[in-house]
Specification:
Elements lengths: L2 H11 L3 H30 L3 H18 L7 H18 L7 H18 L12 H24 L6 H29 L3
């Protein structure tokens, strides 16, 4: 954020340096995430998988905003891991044909994992309080439950397994993020 904009925000709205830093962080986060979604989207557009990508991105974005998960410190490592995540969920795992009842069982497992481990937030964000934790758990429950209903109601849609795999991958990486976060806390605690 340029010095002119910072001066304007301070003089016009009375923002503190901390508030301006929060605005800068939010804007950079949004731009970073949008650019990654666009770059990855271009790949899937070029490979003819844009419909599956849009479904996967919609499912992941709604779920991840509630639950959080693994966070990387650098743009490129995050972009690479995000690409691999989408590639696995769209191109690799859907090759395994799984019946709808198995998808529903996997989604129930994901509900349990999300309820147990959500949310896992970035170290740059404040630790959520009890109300935000309950809200995240409820939101993830609703998102996965709605998706399970869609799997049940439109069982023959060829893209539904993509969303199921994305939810499963997100739930597994949420579990890993929770375990890593606990491990870091245990190492930081003085004995």
């Amino acid at each position: 954020m340029s010095a002119n904009i910072q001066t304007y925000l301070k003089s016009t709205y009375g923002y503190t340096d901390f508030q301006i830093a929060q605005i800068r962080y939010a804007l950079l986060s949004i731009l970073s995430e949008m650019s990654k979604l666009i770059i990855i989207g271009i790949f899937f557009y070029c490979t003819g998988n844009v419909t599956a990508y849009l479904l996967a991105a919609a499912v992941l974005c709604t779920l991840r905003t509630a639950t959080g998960g693994l966070h990387y410190k650098h743009y490129w490592s995050c972009l690479i891991m995000s690409f691999l995540f989408f590639y696995a969920g769209i191109c690799v795992l859907p090759v395994l044909t799984i019946p709808n009842y198995v998808q529903l069982l996997l989604l129930c497992l994901c509900i349990l994992l999300n309820y147990k481990y959500a949310p896992v937030v970035s170290s740059f964000r404040p630790v959520p309080d009890g109300i935000l934790i309950r809200k995240a758990k409820l939101q993830s429950f609703l998102i996965i439950s709605i998706y399970a209903c869609l799997v049940f109601l439109i069982p023959n849609n060829r893209h539904m397994p993509v969303g199921t795999w994305i939810i499963l991958l997100q739930s597994l990486q949420l579990t890993a993020a929770n375990l890593l976060q606990k491990r870091r806390k245990n190492h930081e605690t003085p004995e």
